[in-house]
Write a structure and sequence with these properties.
Pfam families: UbiA (PF01040). The protein has 119 residues and is mainly alpha-helical. It is 72% helix and 0% strand. The protein contains six helices and no strands. α2 packs antiparallel against α3 and α3 packs antiparallel against α6. It is elongated and about 55 Å long. The mean pLDDT is 87.
């Protein structure tokens, strides 16, 4: 994997999965399971919904990590254990981080748009 791509993955903190993504995943799944029980959804659809919300939770968490690093870049390069973060170290520019953030937000909005009116 090229170093720029590796830096972008590090920026999203996908390599930490499922840490952090769980905070987004469990509320989604809890609501989905409650609704599935209420409408007697078949098990294969429950499993597909769970996988869908796992991916959605990962994307939301990744977008939050990108926003955090963009807002804290002036602080991060002053703190020893945060100096290695992609924006603080200069491996990723603010423009690249902004493009990545807009791509993540676009994917999130698209996924939410496919959930339908019952969501």
């Amino acid at each position: 994997m090229p170093s720029k791509a590796r830096s972008l993955v590090k920026l999203t903190r996908i390599h930490w999965f499922p840490v952090g993504s769980n905070f987004m995943f469990w509320p989604f799944v809890w609501g989905s399971l409650a609704a599935s029980y209420h409408v007697a959804l078949p098990m294969n659809e429950v499993i597909m919904n769970t996988l869908f919300y796992a991916l959605l939770g990962m994307l939301v968490h990744s977008a939050g990590c990108v926003i955090n690093d963009m807002l804290d870049h002036n602080f991060d390069h002053k703190v020893e254990h945060l100096k290695g973060r992609p924006i603080a170290s200069g491996a990723v520019t603010m423009t690249e981080a902004s493009i990545l953030l807009f791509m993540l937000i676009g994917a999130i909005f698209y996924m939410f748009s496919t959930t339908g009116p019952m969501a």
